[in-house]
Fold this sequence. Notes:
By secondary structure, the protein is of the alpha/beta class. About 40% of the residues lie in helices and about 15% in strands.
Amino acid sequence: MIFITLGSQKFQFNRILIAVDELLDKKVISDEVFAQIGYSDYRPKNYKFKKFLNYDEFKKMEEKADIILTHGGTGAIIGAIKQGKKVIAVPRLAKYGEHVDNHQIQLIEQFKTQNLIYGLKNCGELKDALNYIKNHDFNIYKSNTNLIIDSIEKFINEH
């Protein structure tokens, strides 16, 4: 199953929803698809969706999914890779009214460089991305939260 999650930003992200609908129309995607569309105003024709999911609904969808298709938000990406999911991320771009700037390009590139996700530059690459990740082994995400906490505690104790 493919779970599309577009976050809770007050911006639409219709491009990604339309691209998936088109690939389903062409029978390129045969997987079940579900989307949390957020503030997008495009209504998918070939798959189920909901504007927002509560915490339990979101976790259930994330657990059920083999692939998470998401925007370039840090929380969405980290949440999915912590669950061991294969992630395809597409940056929200200012020129399409999807965000105020293009910072998601850099965020996605950082995760992609670490072989944690597959990052796209545009939705036209989605077909290739889906084919690629099915047989690609990504690195396992390792949190450095404890390392950061330890270093802060050490600093405090020394000063």
